[in-house]
Amino acid sequence: MAKEQVFYHIPVLLKEVVELLVTDENGIYVDGTIGGGGHSEKILERLGEGGRIFGFDKDIEAIEFCKERFKGELERGERSRIELFNECFSKACSITRHRGEWTGFLLDLGVSSRQLDESRRGFSYRAVGPLDLRFSPHGQTAEDLVNAANEEVLAALLQRYGEEPFAKKIAKAIVQQRKISPLRTTVDLAKVVENVVPKKYLVKSLSRVFQAIRIAINDELNVLENALFASLGCLSKGGRIVVISYHSLEDRIVKNFFRKFSLSKVNETSKIMPRLKVLTKKPIVPSKEEIALNPRSRSAKLRAAEKIS
Ligand SMILES: C[S@@+](CC[C@H](N)C(=O)[O-])C[C@H]1O[C@@H](n2cnc3c(N)ncnc32)[C@H](O)[C@@H]1O
């Protein structure tokens, strides 16, 4: 398995995740972004016979990969400690509610190395591929979006989800280019960006533009907020939420959510007690050693909280 693990994705902050998340060997754990199953495998190692992992991923290829990875466990049928769901993690609470309260909820956001390296998914500007960028084959693609949205919408989206300083220029150039011919591939889009952004900012702009479009078409920020909120209804008292984010927009949502629910509120008639205790005053980040071994971990930030009421 070690070979496939490197090939699919190297799990980030693995030891830290397991230590923070697993508090009961017979608990229920939801891995909302199972990907290549790296985190889940380590969680599984810590579980007793009564423990369960419900692994979610919107990407059917991740689920298929995990079916192989956890074949031995899955073959135990009803006794299998892992179950896989090809669904969005925002549905995890409604799908698993009848199975019992959660002891832990893990979200390792963003894309896996497999998705980035697979040019036909269009997640990376470094390789020629279709302008897709969806986690699942439903809904509009990046191609639909960049060829249909008006200039103001495109500029706002690049600004909001990419914090891209050249957003207006890039949006204008996209609209001009598509009058000549529609943008079909990652390279078509990358070329438009290249034409308007000074060379020294190009690499950063390209990642921000692709990030912004990915966030928009997968509605990533709303999905994250909804899932965090829903998880409060499914976690047991003492249950933990652990989230690894890879850019400031996601991290801000997690930080604000934890803050909001860890404060007590007083109104005219009553005092509302906090529902969460924040376990990470500052986010946990990968060590220099981890970043050297896995450069894709460099922007990771882990935050965790415990449900207290
Ligand atoms: C960084 S990878 C997770 C890697 C995983 N922790 C591992 O150890 O291999 C993120 C995964 O989340 C999935 N994903 C992204 N958004 C999702 C969503 N809304 N619902 C379910 N899965 C999602 C992606 O398809 C991807 O496989």
CATH T-level fold name of the largest domain: Rossmann fold
Helical fraction: 40-55%
Helical run tally: 15
Mean pLDDT: 95
Largest sheet: 7 strands, mixed
Secondary-structure class: alpha/beta
CATH superfamily of the largest domain: Vaccinia Virus protein VP39
- Specify Rg, calculated over alpha carbons: 20 Å
CATH architecture of the largest domain: 3-Layer(aba) Sandwich
Which molecules other than protein and nucleic acid are bound? Answer: S-adenosylmethionine
- What's the CATH class of the largest domain, please? Alpha Beta
Report strand %. Answer: 5-15%
Q: Give the strand order, joined by hyphens, for the main sheet.
A: 3-2-1-4-5-9-8
The coarse silhouette is: globular
List the helices and strands and how they pair.
Layout (H helix, E strand, L loop, with lengths): L1 H7 L5 H8 L6 E4 L6 H9 L5 E5 L3 H10 L1 H4 L7 E4 L6 H5 L5 E7 L4 H5 L24 H7 L2 H12 L4 H14 L5 H11 L5 H17 L1 H15 E11 L2 H15 L2 E2 L4 E2 L3 E3 L9 H6 L7 E7 L2
Parallel strand pairs: 1-2, 1-4, 2-3, 4-5
Antiparallel strand pairs: 5-9, 6-7, 8-9
This protein binds S-adenosylmethionine.
S-adenosylmethionine binds next to helix 3.
Describe the model.
47% of the residues lie in helices and 15% in strands. With 309 residues, it is α/β, with parallel strands linked by helices. The protein folds into two domains: 2-114 and 220-307, Vaccinia Virus protein VP39 (Rossmann fold), CATH 3.40.50; 125-218, Putative methyltransferase TM0872, insert domain (DNA polymerase, domain 1, Orthogonal Bundle). It has a seven-stranded mixed β-sheet with strand order 3-2-1-4-5-9-8, with helices on both faces. The chain has a two-stranded antiparallel ribbon with strand order 6-7. Helix 3 links the parallel strand 1 and strand 2. Helix 9 (151-162) packs across helix 12 and helix 10 packs across helix 11 (186-196). The model is unreliable at 1-6 (pLDDT under 50). Residues 9, 11, 32-33, 35-39, 56-59, 62, 88-89, 108, 110-112, 135, 223 line the site of S-adenosylmethionine.
